[in-house]
Amino acid sequence: MRPTMSIGLFCSASDGLPAAYETAARDFGRLCAVHGFRLVYGGSGRGLMGLAAHAALAGGGQVTGVMPRHLAGRERAETRLADLRMVDSLAERKQVMADLSDVFFVLPGGVGTLDEAFEMVTWYDIGLHRKATVFVDIDAFWTPVLGVFEHLDRQKMLRAHVRGGYDRIATVDEMPAAAMRHRGTAAAEAVA
Length: 192
Hints:
Helix content: 40-55%
Oligomer: single chain
Number of domains: 1
């Protein structure tokens, strides 16, 4: 089955995280499979990344991993993937994920996840793509970060069009509707 769209996922590769985050990652992967979305993620078999990928695979979904060679051991590259793309750097990982994805979602993660999410919003701002980045605000994890966007907006440091480049949902259950909503926005803006 050909995927209806490709969902980029940025999140933690750390194990032992709060149960709510692990459940969200599993649900995210499961929903990708149920809705026929291809999951495009960082290629790790660990942490939230691994949980999302394993759930998508268990549901019969298509999963593409993008793993920098220098992190393959540390992040335990997921060897069960039919499509694991090895790249030379973190910058190349982001570029490949951006090229393959129709919209991006951000589950809880650390500074690497922040870097990936902010870069996708930045690329939206400067016109390198018109793909939204959606923060899944599980237990208000991303609320402080989203407050930074509000602060930038109040200080007139955020161009008006950037507001279309990021969004927030409170639960993973909202992901399919948000994906379709933002896919339509990206397609309309690409034509304009």
